[in-house]
Amino acid sequence: MPKVRQLTPSVIALLALACGGTQPAPSPTAATPSTSAAAPPAPTSTLDGLSGVDVPRVRIQIDGYPWFGAERPLVHLVEVTSFEAWCEFCFKQREIVPRLAALHPDAVRVVSRFKANKPVAGNMPQVGIFAARAAHAVFHAHGPAAFAKYRLALLKEGSDLNLKALVRHAHAFGPGRGDQPKQLDAADPLLFATNHRMVVLGQRAFPMAFINGRPVPVHKEAEAATILRKEIDLAKRAAARGFTGKTLYAALMNRAGDTLPGKRVLDRSLAYRIPVDGSPTLGPATAPVTIVAFVDFECPFSRTAQFELAELRKKYGDKLRVVYKHRPLAFHRRAKPAARVAAAVYQFVSAKAFWKLHHTLFAQQHALRDTDLKKYGTDAGLSEAQVSNALTRDNPLIARDSALAEKFGSRGTPAFFINGRLITGAHPLATFQERIDAALAEVAKLPGGGTPYERVLASASVVPIYTLDKPVADRPKPGPIPRQAARGWPVWGKGPQLLAIVTGATPSRFDGMPSAVRKLANAHPQLTITWQISANPAFDNSMDVAAAARELLRQKGKTAFLTFLERIAEHAGPLDRAAIVTIAGKVPGARKAAVASALKRGTHRTALEQTRTTLATVRVAHGASVHELNGARRYGKINVSELGAAVDARAR
Fold first, then answer.
1. What single-letter DSSP state applies at residue 412?
2. Which of 153, 334, 423, 487 is the 20 to 30 A CA-CA neighbour of 511?
């Protein structure tokens, strides 16, 4: 058990830093702990010859971090996550990890390492670093069981998490015993170390998990459970040689690598020479800024990024050139056929036809079957024979672009090289604008001769990267959610004031929201309330949850819609399609067979895609939870009393 300390006013003082206080950043040299586990007493044998020992593992430190689970574990499951409201993947991982541990309660210890990311969209509050500090404080004051409850309480707060909630949940455990606290910011070096470790691994934004150092795809729960069973079996065989869970972890860390298996991590302080010849482009070659985009036609994040790229071209005009590179990912089954048809259009028709098809493929991302692609290809100017050949043969353009992405360490999509500097994943418009503005300033300092892109690449290795530390408040605010965006979704009331609600499609996003809607609709006739679900297709069950909600709305109206979402929020187990249909079938009056048929046939998929497309134009990321009262946006859950008071004040 960790040393017990008291948790009282220091937590409040710690969290108060978010209201405008500052704190010196820890020194990287002093703050980063050793990457290898502390050496416990040596066992009497070695791991040589044990099956499963030499699978790829990553060196990840566990000493000093909060944990819960087995007192004498066989394996250590390390979760790397964030409490930031925008991180839908973090929500998903923090829901699944306890379920994995519960499969083997006497064998698994969960070690929690928290990141402190910058927000990536709009004006979302940054509470992650303060939540992480408070979680560390609860662990050191009250131990693993209290930490597990605190972690769960913060998860249930979801995107409504704020400083008051952090303090309220921390004080619910009562005062600690024993020594008076020292500086509770002692967790900062550990937070710094986690951020630093993830940068080294090339994982800046999304969460990760490791079982005895073995990277696991926690969002694929069944696969993660299989890996967990294999590691427990290995630990039991190692126990016969004298290893405990702790000594086994130390021994495995001595064998582990410093980077993810097969992943090359770029130095983001440098620009890289990305060739652009022979690829589709938008904008003149004389543009001072070139964005090389590696994109997958089936990737939802690649699709989201197209809105940002279109807005950037409008803003910067001839100062910006966009170069398209194919990067169909193996787990997107329709991405490569779509890329083959698009590449054939570029080769045999024209660049203009390619870009038109490019827009079509993203707009129809739900319809990329061979029959669909044949129609798109012939509409773009290919003959039927050319389309058939494209669908059945590898294309050298795609192979070249994919090899280029591998060479420069880009494994996912979208990936952008802005004048040679890498930015990965979906980002808000403001992030791209900051980097483009900085790139324009750099180009202005370069000597003349040749195109700007050639001059940038000639001096790329000596140009330092710029920082992105502008306060979130300085970023342009998004436009209001348009009233017409709610077509086909439930509407309550006919008042002059509009409350527009958008949630993701995971249980934590629905928690408490149906009750809030009922209360507001009953108490405030001056309101019109709309509720839309913007599903995140990166999660297999997300689209099914949203589709089932729309189907129940069609069958039995708003009451069934709210009841279903309440029951989804209460659901504790895996949420696959069968579970969703079962939950829907228990809604009074619902036709279970019709729900199952709607999910199988994709009846509501087009409507869900249209919802995400419309909301993206006002910078509502899919999976986010936001609500707007008369155009004023807030993130997270609804505070009924505060929002009701605002409605009444405006009515007066």
1. S
2. 487
